[in-house]
Amino acid sequence: MSMIEVTRDVKNPLLSRREITCNFKGLSGRLKKLEAVDMVSKKFNLEGKIVIPILLKNETGRPVVSGSFYVYEDEKLAKEHLKAAVFARIEKAKGAAAKPEGEAPAEQADTPKEESK
User: Fold this and answer.
1) What residues does 9 pair with on adjacent strands?
2) What percent of the chain has pLDDT over 90?
């Protein structure tokens, strides 16, 4: 039994993208957007394509997360169709995933502490 249940998989020829909506069973409260993108990419063999997480929503009273994703062939086309904030959010999540837990942010680690008088 798969953790991913596809509820909608549509090609949108007007916007030149594929729109996938699916449910992730048993991952409520633990699924991050980048992890969801990886899972969808592996399930649908989308290596080399741009997968954008649009919405991850926890269902009330059930351990299910509903997710919506847009799949583009070209990153330039994706940037024309979607807001810049979407890409900024993805880059921020990638940066947070790359930084190990428990490490202080760079601006706090470099500044010396002032002694109180």
Assistant:
1) 20
2) 55
